[in-house]
UniProtKB/TrEMBL annotation:
Protein name: Glucoamylase family protein
UniProt keyword annotations, A-Z: Signal
Every Glycoamylase-like domain range: 230-477
Compositionally skewed regions (Basic and acidic residues) per UniProt: 494-509
Residue ranges crossing the lipid bilayer per the database entry: none
Keyword set includes Cell cycle: no
Pfam families reported for this sequence: Glycoamylase
Feature: compositional bias, Polar residues: 543-552
Disordered: region residues: 490-552
Length: 552
């Protein structure tokens, strides 16, 4: 069995030339319509390679601190609910609460809040969630069957309005934060014991099977007025974390076939886009959310074993594809380029048709934006979270992009809690706006911060710094079980690894990487290129890393 380690992106032209000759006899045409699995002579096991980490400029410390303060300052101190957005703050988002519960331990580790303060806030949040009125009624309730309504009243915690659904994936994002708190607060102290116990209660009462109306898939949610949402989670997207949680449940677990059937739809979105061959999803949040809590480096399910990569590498390619799209800039939006890119779900100026460069263009307010084989929409709106939350995947392109955004637009888009949600240099139309404002000669700028965009910024910078969130979550037995029942193997899931919490290490401690490569392996760049097959061997486009900071 060949063991291939991911390496840095750059592959020398000399190596590429050798690979082209070696692969010439088995090369397939490289087209965007290609959806058939790549045939490899034997399974490929991907292991993470200990790479020299690029130093983060001081700007990133400032981004982290400001983004942490968003969660600490805007969450309701009386019940722990976190607003969907701020300063407009119309309602709480249960997904934002999940990110807030993850943010508080980061604040402890960085010295921004004391452990006592974070324990107080976390206990307040978990108790409130535990005690929320639950039931099938259309009003006066905050949850049902262990699931929570997408948006809650900031004070009462009840369903915000009749258009708000009982959300499976947003409950999943909440539960990731709940389980993170369970694993982090590990001291033999009454309040931390209570955190662990309540977290266990909240997770165990989520009835994942109840939302399996079209078994084995899981529905997107439920309305008390109309019943189950007909659409199930399928394809490739942020629901990866949802299925891991559902598979790991000790009380209402779904069967492993749920993962098998879900991944069968992957081939519809596997292909070559902007020179990258990967499992595509247009908005970058789909490539980021699950990775906030789960370290996918070196672990593979059956689908990724066939492809010879892991989901981490897949997300790296997605980031590069979006950057390549911005460089190509087929719609000729202003300022798109190698250091200004990033499409995801975000705020936008308005739902409107306007003339741009002699043709009618559609613009939107809040919407998913993306570039890929599917889920494509681009109206010139850039969301800083799209690039920044890709930091662990591709620091060599994310660092210069983040610095450039701050230098060029920081006066308008960088404020008390870091980067405002989004901006659009091309939108300069004097019309009523859904949100945000027009800056003379600069275009449209959002007026809000959005919790589910702030969360990935903070957590992914932290994961890049020291793998903190990943390493804490590796200790959670429910996450480990969910991954194993989904068929993930290798890496930190291997039995040879110490059982979480039994090795004497503290939560968040990084596990040392092997000091040397196994004897007899070829250099990592060559090995990875071979394992990734034809389309990776002849691409040959080197990254523009000249502006990336040098390691300290």
């Amino acid at each position: 069995m060949r063991r291939v380690k991911p390496a840095t992106r750059a592959v020398s032209f000399a190596v590429l030339g050798t690979l082209l000759i070696a692969l010439a006899g088995c090369k397939k045409p490289e087209t965007e319509s290609q959806t058939q699995p790549i045939v490899t002579p034997e399974p490929v096991v991907v292991e993470p390679l200990k790479q020299e980490r690029l130093a983060l400029p001081p700007l990133f410390r400032d981004i982290e601190k400001r983004t942490f303060q968003f969660f600490w300052d805007t969450s309701n101190e009386q019940n722990g609910l976190t607003p969907d957005r701020y300063p407009s703050r119309p309602f709480a988002s249960i997904a934002s609460v999940g990110f807030a519960l993850t943010a508080y331990p980061i604040g402890i580790e960085r010295g921004w809040v004391s452990r006592t303060q974070a324990v107080d806030r976390t206990l307040t949040t978990l108790k409130f969630l535990r005690d929320l009125p639950s039931g099938p009624q259309a009003s006066g309730k905050g949850s049902y069957k262990g699931f929570y309504y997408h948006f809650l009243d900031m004070q009462k915690g009840q369903r915000y309005d009749s258009w708000v659904e009982l959300s499976s994936v947003d409950t999943g994002l909440l539960m990731m934060g709940v389980l993170f708190a369970q694993s982090y607060y590990d001291r033999d102290e009454p309040r931390e014991k209570e955190i662990r116990a309540i977290a266990d209660t909240l997770y165990k009462r989520v009835d994942w099977q109840w939302l399996q109306q079209n078994k084995p898939l899981i529905s997107m949610g439920w309305f008390p007025e109309s019943g189950f949402i007909k659409h199930d989670w399928m394809g490739y997207n942020e629901a990866m974390l949802l299925y891991v949680l559902a598979l790991g449940s000790p009380t209402h677990a779904v069967e492993p076939e749920a993962w098998t059937v879900w991944t069968r739809t992957y081939n519809d979105v596997w292909g070559v886009y902007q020179g990258e061959e990967f499992l595509a999803f247009g908005p970058l949040f789909g490539h980021q959310y699950s990775h906030v809590w789960i370290d996918f480096r070196g672990i593979q399910d059956d689908y990724m074993r066939e492809r010879g990569i892991d989901y981490f590498e897949n997300s790296r390619r997605a980031a590069y594809a979006q950057r390549a799209y911005a460089i190509a800039n087929p719609m000729k939006w202003e300022d798109y380029g190698p250091e200004l890119w990033g499409l995801t779900a975000s705020d936008g100026p308005q739902q409107t048709l306007q003339e741009y460069r002699g043709e009618q263009r559609q613009f939107r307010h809040y919407s998913a934006r993306g570039a890929g084989l599917r889920e494509n929409f681009d109206d010139g709106t850039i969301a800083p979270t799209a690039a920044i939350a890709s930091l662990p995947f591709a620091p060599e392109i994310v660092i210069p992009t983040t610095v450039s955004m701050h230098e060029r637009y920081g006066e308008f888009i960088y404020s008390s809690y870091g980067f405002l949600d989004s901006f659009n240099p091309s939108f300069k139309y004097d019309i009523p706006l859904k949100t945000g404002r027009l800056v003379p000669d600069q275009g449209w700028v959002a007026s809000d911060y959005i919790g589910i965009d702030q969360g990935p910024i903070l957590t992914m910078i932290t994961n890049y710094r020291n793998e903190f969130v990943w390493n804490v979550m590796k200790r959670n037995p429910y996450i480990r079980t969910g991954l194993q029942r989904a068929g993930f193997k290798g890496g930190w899931l291997e039995p040879k690894d110490a059982e979480p919490g039994k090795d004497g290490a503290k939560p968040g401690d990084a596990k040392p990487a092997p000091a040397t490569k196994p004897s007899g392996t070829i250099d990592p760049a060559t090995a990875r290129a071979l394992g990734e097959a034809e389309s990776r061997a002849n691409r040959g486009n080197a990254p523009a890393t000249q502006n990336a900071p040098k390691p300290e």
